[in-house]
Every structure is written in structure tokens, then in C-alpha cells.
Amino acid sequence: MPTIQSTDAEIYYEVSGSGTPVLLIAGLGGVGATWGPQTAMFSKKHTVILPDHRGTGRSTHTAKGQTITQHAADFAAIVEKLGIGPVHVVGSSTGGAITQALALEYPKLVKTATIASSWARVDPFFQRQFAARAQMIASAGVKAATEMGALFLFDPRFQMTNQAVVQGWVDAAVKGASQADIAIKRMDMILAHDRLGDLAGIKCPVLVIVGEADFCTPPHLSEQMAAAIAGAELAKLPGGHFFYMEHPQLFHDRVEAFFAKHGG
């Protein structure tokens, strides 16, 4: 089982495929498997690195180091261990926040940054949403909160005819879920993330991409990020927060085109 010791935690990761390296960083659930079909799709042309966040999955379940900066350090350590940088980094939601930190703090390791379904500064809507989700975890537990989260993480139109996909995400997220105390720490980490004022310092090519029906991190947050990064591309695709599962080929093709534009 491939792991790396990063400060006080073992970080689990998987490597598949061959070619130009791509680091896929999952969202709040933290489990690499929640990337669903994208892992196999990227593996056809790339060496894919798929880690589990500390506190989740097969990484050490710990409340220590639950900061965006520490997660960036964990994943930078994996890239350095493998000796295959710089890499294309693709981060969804919380993974997009970690991608921002990687691009800012480890620029030599990042070839391009794709920031999907993410944010750089909390606004009042975001604050209320995640405060409510933390309360749900505290009162009803992680499993119930995950089931509830599926209601607004997927486009309702998609859910009408794709219950198997939605349930598959729920099952994968619950299987690797944090304990409630860790999950709440991760909520705190999300609410503390504020790098909007730093984004001008990102020098690698950036794609900011979001689902048009994203309720969790609405498109205006992506517009704000793209405006703050010189030369950033902004793409809006059909779908909700998990548009990479709802429209996998559309998402994949757009990201691959961005890679090709900047050296494959």
C-alpha cells in the first residue's frame, strides 16, 4: 500500500497509467475514489496520482493538520517522492482550494492548475451553508450529512435519472469518511480558506471551471477567482457541483484541451 509520511500522518495514494503526470485532488470527502470515471479517463494518457486526504480514506485519520496549507504540503511531498514533477494539478472543491495553495507555495511542482467547483474567499451564502452542514454532522453524524449533501451537490435534473451514480458517490464517501470530530475540523478548514488576495501570485497556467447549476460553490465564486488570476481561463459547463461525474466526457475533454495547450 503506497503511503508517504508527512509530518504526523501517513498519506495514502495510488498511481495508475503513464505519460505526463496529473495529480487529482478530491473535495471535502477527501477520498480519491470519489473522482469516479475521471481516474480511468486520465490514466489513458497520463500518470495519475490519486491521494486520500489526511483524516480520510486510507490515510491516517487525524484531526491534526486539517488546514489547506498542510494538505498542500502532504501532496507536494508525494510529488517530490515520486520525482515526476511538475504535474498538472486538478482539484475539485476543497481540492481546488488545495490546488491554489500548491500553485502559490510549490510553484516548481505545478505545471498547470485546474480549479474546479471551488472558491478563494467565503461569502455569506457559503458561510451559512457550511455552518449548517457542520451542525448536521454534529447532530446526525457523518453518514446522514453525506446523504443530505448529495441533495445539492448533484444537479437535481441529473438525480432524476442517475440515482446509481449518486448512490455510488455516497457509498464511496461514507466508506472513507472521517469521524465526526475530524469532519467538523475539515469544515472549519474550509471556512478559514481565504487566498483571494494572493491569487495574483500564481504564475502557472490556470483553468477555473465550474458547473452552471453548482449550488455548493456557485459560479460567481469561480468568476471571482478567474478575475484575480492573470491569464486564467474560465469555463462553465452543464451540471452541478459534481459536474465531472454528471458529464464526465465533457469535463474531461475541456481539461485535456487545457493540458494540450500547455504542453500536454
Give an account of the 3D structure.
The protein is an alpha/beta fold and about 260 residues long. It has one domain (about 5-260): Alpha/Beta hydrolase fold, catalytic domain (Rossmann fold), CATH 3.40.50.1820. About 45% of the residues lie in helices and about 20% in strands. It contains 11 helices and 8 strands. It has helices at about 35-45, 70-80, 95-105, 125-140, 140-155, 155-160, 165-175, 180-190, 220-230, 245, 250-260, and strands at about 5, 10-15, 20-25, 45-50, 85-90, 110-115, 205-210, 235. It has an 8-stranded mixed β-sheet with strand order 1-2-4-3-5-6-7-8, with helices on both faces. Helix 2 (about 70-80) packs across helix 3 and helix 4 (about 125-140) runs antiparallel to helix 8 (about 180-190). The longest helix has 17 residues, at about 125-140. The protein is globular, with a radius of gyration of 17 Å. It starts with a strand and ends with a helix.
> Which structural class do you get from the secondary structure elements?
alpha/beta
Number of helices: 11
* Straight-line N-to-C gap: 29 Å
What CATH calls the topology is Rossmann fold
Q: Beta fraction of the residues?
A: 15-25%
Q: Indicate the mean pLDDT.
A: 94
The CATH class turns out to be Alpha Beta
Number of folding domains? Answer: 1
pLDDT < 50 stretches: none
